[in-house]
């Protein structure tokens, strides 16, 4: 079985605006991550089948991606004073799931973070310094989040195929 989603579209191939192209690729990857959660049972969404990565579940990955966007896009690039979603003393905190971490809650928080990040970064250009770390550019920060998201979408591909045999692009 293969799954796709209506909200996912490849970026335009005639791109002439670097920053718009980066946002379009990130939107594609974000939608792909959410597609990987479609149709899972609560048990499947929280299953951690990889013995070498005992915290890696579909929901844990989406929580982690939310924390990545909060830190790099909302706080670092956008300069917003939003609370951290991970603990500096516990590098695995955002991977741990609690009773409130349902599929709807975790995917909803991920979607909410997109809007928060985009508002925080409004008006910035690719070459501008990140508002909270002027040693990094917006270009670098957004590219970092794109590569991090792409890497974890690959993990989601593997988990989903393991869980129920579902594959997709």
Structural class per helix/strand content? mainly alpha
Strand numbers in spatial order across the main sheet: 1-2
Indicate the low-confidence ranges by residue numbers. Answer: none
Calculate the mean pLDDT score and round it: 92
Please report the distance between the alpha carbons of the first and last residues.
12 Å
Give the helix/strand layout.
Elements: H1 18-35, H2 42-46, H3 58-77, H4 103-120, E1 129-130, E2 133-137, H5 138-164
Antiparallel strand pairs: 1-2
Please, could you describe this protein's structure?
- The chain is mainly alpha-helical and 169 residues long.
- It is 52% helix and 4% strand.
- The protein is built from 5 helices and 2 strands; from the N terminus they run H-H-H-H-E-E-H.
- The chain has helices spanning 18-35, 42-46, 58-77, 103-120, 138-164; strands at 129-130, 133-137.
- The protein has a two-stranded antiparallel sheet with strand order 1-2.
- The longest helix has 27 residues, at 138-164.
- It is globular.
- It starts with 17 loop residues before the first helix and ends in a 5-residue tail after the last helix.
